């Protein structure tokens, strides 16, 4: 069963004096029900807060051996951009053995795709090309190695989703790209890409998105519709990810890493030692005050 990524549009500014006006729920991209990752991001005019769990389950594509869980830092910096991703492509025997096989190392593949000196739209466009080429190779290999696994993890659900945040022309930008596999009648593979950007596609500048494993989050927000309006963004991100950890600790696990991005720069609100410190970039997030 596929699970929708839900985007909450807030027509309210995150500030000390909060007045509830309205809330819109927009079903946007489809996320993988098989993804053992929970990512939540909140964006407003002043900041973007993004959080993710730490547990990664490595499943051997061949079907031999038992799944293995390790901790990973799922929020990654590349230049002045940061990303988190969820999906079925970053798995395989190579990763189980600890080898840095780029075919299965989605973190390095995404970071490579986002490198460059262009604006964020140009760099995400390059990421699309890099990921489509890489995911096509992975999907073809999985189809040959294990047809049942391929059907369950690559055909029924989107293969991979990436959330990218960063500065662009004085604004804080949040983008989402979802890659769904398409099989032609002849059997050839291609990808349909779901795209979302804020500013741009969002109705207001204040949104909350969640990706990956989100069942507990969706159920909670259906019963607590005002939660996002009265919670601090950092607390909201932390609490929502922890809901998923509590519901299914076998798939989603602590600790929760949280990054906060403002026009003054980026900072870890909380992180495990595995996550590297923020690297200063030559491109400032905003022009210095005159």
What is the compact description of this entry?
The protein is an alpha+beta fold. 26% of the residues lie in helices and 33% in strands.
Give your account of this protein's structure.
There is one protein chain. This protein is of the alpha+beta class. Helix content is 26%, strand content 33%. The strands form 3 sheets. A 7-stranded antiparallel sheet has the order 2-1-12-3-4-13-14, covered by helices on one side. Strands 7-8-9-10-11 form a 5-stranded antiparallel sheet. It is globular, with a radius of gyration of 18 Å. The protein starts with a strand and ends in a 20-residue tail after the last strand. The model is unreliable at 12-34, 91-103 and 285-290 (pLDDT under 50).
What is the H/E order?
Answer: EEEEEEEEHHHHEEEEHHHEE
Biggest sheet character: 7 strands, antiparallel
Q: Give the name of the CATH architecture.
A: 4-Layer Sandwich
Strand order of the largest sheet: 2-1-12-3-4-13-14
CATH superfamily grouping? Aminohydrolase, N-terminal nucleophile (Ntn) domain
- Which of globular, elongated, flat, extended, rod-shaped describes the shape? globular
CATH class: Alpha Beta
Number of DSSP strand runs: 14
- Could you estimate the helical fraction of the residues in percent? 25-40%
Terminal CA distance reads 54 Å
CATH topology: Glutamine Phosphoribosylpyrophosphate, subunit 1, domain 1
Domains (count): 1
Query: How much of the residues is beta strand, in percent?
Result: 25-35%
Mean pLDDT: 80
């Amino acid at each position: 069963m596929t699970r929708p990524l839900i985007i909450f549009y807030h027509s309210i500014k995150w500030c000390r004096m909060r007045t509830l006006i309205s809330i819109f729920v927009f079903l946007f991209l489809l996320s993988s029900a098989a993804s053992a990752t929970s990512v939540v991001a909140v964006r407003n005019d002043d900041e973007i807060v993004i959080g993710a769990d730490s547990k990664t389950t490595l499943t051997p594509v061949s079907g031999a051996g038992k799944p293995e869980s390790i901790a990973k830092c799922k929020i990654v910096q590349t230049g002045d951009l940061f990303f988190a991703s969820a999906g079925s492509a970053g798995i395989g025997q190579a990763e189980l053995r600890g080898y840095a096989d780029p075919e299965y190392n989605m973190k390095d593949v995404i970071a490579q795709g986002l490198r460059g000196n262009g604006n964020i739209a140009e760099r995400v466009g390059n990421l699309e090309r890099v990921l489509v080429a890489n995911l096509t190779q992975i999907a073809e290999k999985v189809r040959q190695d294990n047809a049942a696994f391929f059907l369950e993890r690559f055909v029924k659900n989107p293969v991979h989703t990436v959330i990218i945040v960063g500065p662009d022309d004085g604004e804080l930008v949040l983008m989402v790209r979802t890659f769904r596999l398409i099989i032609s009648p002849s059997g050839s593979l291609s990808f349909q890409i779901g795209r979302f950007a804020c500013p741009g596609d969002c109705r207001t500048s204040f949104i909350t998105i969640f990706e990956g494993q989100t069942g507990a989050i969706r159920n909670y927000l259906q019963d607590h519709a005002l939660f996002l309006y009265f919670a601090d963004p950092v607390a909201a991100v932390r609490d929502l990810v922890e809901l998923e950890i509590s519901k299914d600790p076998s798939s989603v696990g602590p600790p929760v890493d949280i990054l906060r991005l403002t026009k003054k720069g980026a900072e870890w609100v909380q992180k495990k030692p595995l996550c590297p410190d923020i690297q200063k970039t030559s491109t400032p997030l905003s022009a210095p005050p005159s």
